[in-house]
Design goal:
CATH architecture of the largest domain: 3-Layer(aba) Sandwich
CATH class of the largest domain: Alpha Beta
Bound molecules: zinc ion
Number of helices: 14
Radius of gyration: 25 Å
Strand order of the largest sheet: 12-11-10-13-15-21-20-19-17-18
Number of strands: 21
CATH topology of the largest domain: Rossmann fold
């Protein structure tokens, strides 16, 4: 049985899948703990993205996915400040754009027994006779009411403040001309339905009491504006986290008050991405609306950033650190939007390892960058990748991508491999490496293939030979459809091996592959320039300006 991917996130179809025995391995799935009583044992399974410090005291982060399993009856959604009107016209317009998808999200959550709390701050008197308002007011005072739950929480700690990524001190209106201030909000936007079984409140105390009465431990927050109310309100992310709730932000159902004329001078939407990243580092994990709606990621109409999806699942080369860092440069300096589909890292058992959470985001991708090593995937996840290739969109493969889906050992039932991914997509023929792993051992030297110097991907890449840390892969012979750009060698060993090339994949899309990609390679300006150029080339865009002229300085 195969579920339609658009419906893959739908709770209903997955509940059905669970009942008839299909593996619930999607972005959002309802699983059964025991064959009996599937309905009330169902759990919400969320892929929650977080950024964790590589080590204490480090400023480097890894991006990770945790699989959360929440009981719906212990879970609430808080809709923050989705007002009918805002003093900023742009903000009002974006709320109206968000609201229909948010309503879908909320309807699915409600249907599954999640408590819905509407929190249109300072307008709840509009609902004074609504049963949802009365529900919030009638919850008895909780014995464990936190002392500061009635107040805003501006910062988690001093450290959060010092690394805050945007300047919002002007109020964040992105419009031209600037909007005047004011308080034009009267109620929540009507697009979001309020059911009699929901609650309405803007009070930290009321919401806490309500949660105690209903046994709510898990909180999903969506709404606006991420950098202000969503983070700081009495019922916002910071307070819920510091008072011990399990909290996630829905990162595509939110917006930021950020003006692109202010530091760090990025687009309005990149401002939101920066805040989301900040939240993932310092406050709580984030999820996407796909997990509830089964729809592709929500994107604003004016958000024209090409979407690059990094598919990361390997344990050898820290790709969960190097690629998010590279993605930050793409977002801040080059106007891209980036998402990650992440495999389970090192520690997991064999079966869990063969799972790349969030591959459904490929539906929305303009470019996929694959850094995966020896994984099988649940059939439905592999279909996401195969469909992406069929769509003819471009792909970039890094290093272990040549054996990305060639797992060792026997396949588990329900899992599939794609050993010919190397041939079908990359045009390669990986069959081992030269074993020059030791740092003091024979080195890998690479150089631009002489007649290829003017290839756009090699713009700004030195033409002379230079040293890379990656031990040399054996990849010959390549498919006839490839064009070799860069060659490598170890000592005088023959043959020399291609280390970077372009190809056209079986779906007709552009491909760039390089067998380089060791973490030390990411420190080389020449490697970074080549990868950056390849991203522009894959998307058929003119090459970016070369920032630093790089010389081939290696002497040997
Ligand atoms: Zn405005």
């Amino acid at each position: 049985m195969r579920l339609s991917k658009l419906k893959a996130g739908s709770i209903v179809s997955l509940l059905l899948a669970a009942l008839i025995g299909a593996a619930p391995l999607n972005d959002f799935a309802v699983s059964k703990e025991t064959p009996k009583a599937a309905t009330n044992k169902n759990k919400i399974i969320l892929n929650a993205r977080r950024r964790i410090k590589v080590s204490d005291g480090s400023n480097e982060f890894r991006v990770v996915n945790n699989r959360l399993q929440w009981n719906p009856s212990e879970t609430a959604v808080i809709i923050c400040d989705m007002w009918d009107q805002h003093w900023c016209k742009g903000a009002t317009r974006r709320v109206a754009e968000l609201a229909p998808r948010m309503n879908q999200f909320v309807a699915e959550a409600r249907k599954n027994g999640v408590l819905i709390v509407h929190a249109p701050s300072a307008t709840v008197s509009h609902y004074k006779d609504h049963s949802a308002r009365k529900r919030a007011q009638s919850a008895p005072k909780a014995a464990n009411l936190p002392p500061e739950i009635g107040k805003w929480c501006r910062w988690i700690d001093a450290n959060e403040k010092t690394v805050y990524p945007i300047d919002q001190s002007d109020g964040g209106c992105d419009c031209e001309p600037r909007c005047k201030g004011g308080k034009p909000w009267r109620k929540q936007i009507d697009t979001i339905h309020i059911s009699d079984t929901d609650a309405i409140s803007d009070s930290g105390e009321e919401i806490w009491n309500l949660f105690e009465r209903h046994g709510i431990d898990n909180v999903i927050i969506l709404g606006v504006h991420t950098n202000m109310c969503v983070l700081g309100r009495p019922f916002g992310l910071r307070n819920m986290v510091r008072y011990g709730k399990n909290v996630v932000l829905v990162r595509d159902l939110t917006d930021t008050m950020y003006n692109h004329r202010m530091r760090p001078y990025v687009s309005h939407f990149t401002g939101t991405s920066l805040i989301v990243e900040h939240i993932e580092k310092f406050i709580c994990p984030t999820i996407t609306s796909t997990m509830f709606t089964g729809q592709p990621l929500f994107r604003f109409k004016n958000d024209e950033r090409p979407l690059v999806v990094f598919v990361i699942a390997e344990n050898e080369y820290d790709a969960d650190k190097t690629l998010p860092e590279f993605a930050r440069e793409l977002e801040n300096n080059y106007g891209f939007s980036c998402e990650f589909a992440l495999g389970i890292p090192k520690t997991s058992i064999a079966k869990e390892r063969n799972n790349i959470a969030g591959l459904g985001v490929l539906q929305s991708a303009d470019l996929a960058v694959v850094y995966v090593r020896r994984r099988a995937l649940p059939a439905e996840q592999m279909e996401c990748l195969r469909d992406y290739i069929k769509s003819g969109k471009p792909l970039i493969g890094l290093r272990t991508a040549s054996h990305a889906f060639a797992p060792r050992g026997e396949l588990q039932p329900g899992f599939v491999d794609w050993p010919k991914f190397d041939k079908d997509v990359l045009g390669g023929n990986y069959h081992g490496h030269h074993g020059n792993k030791a740092e003091d051992g024979p080195r890998t030297y690479v150089w631009v293939k002489p007649e290829m110097e003017s290839h756009p991907i090699l713009t700004g890449v030195p033409s002379g030979e230079f040293y890379v840390r990656s031990w040399l892969y054996k990849t010959l012979p390549l498919a006839k459809t490839t064009t070799v750009l860069m060659i490598g060698r170890v000592d005088d060993r023959k043959p020399h091996e291609p280390v970077a090339w372009t190809n056209t994949h079986i779906g007709g899309g552009r491909v760039f592959y390089t067998s380089l990609g060791h973490p030390d390679d990411f420190k080389l300006p020449a490697f970074r320039q080549m990868l950056l150029n390849a991203i522009f080339w894959a998307l058929d865009k003119p090459m970016p300006k070369v920032k630093v002229k790089v010389e081939a300085t290696v002497s040997h």
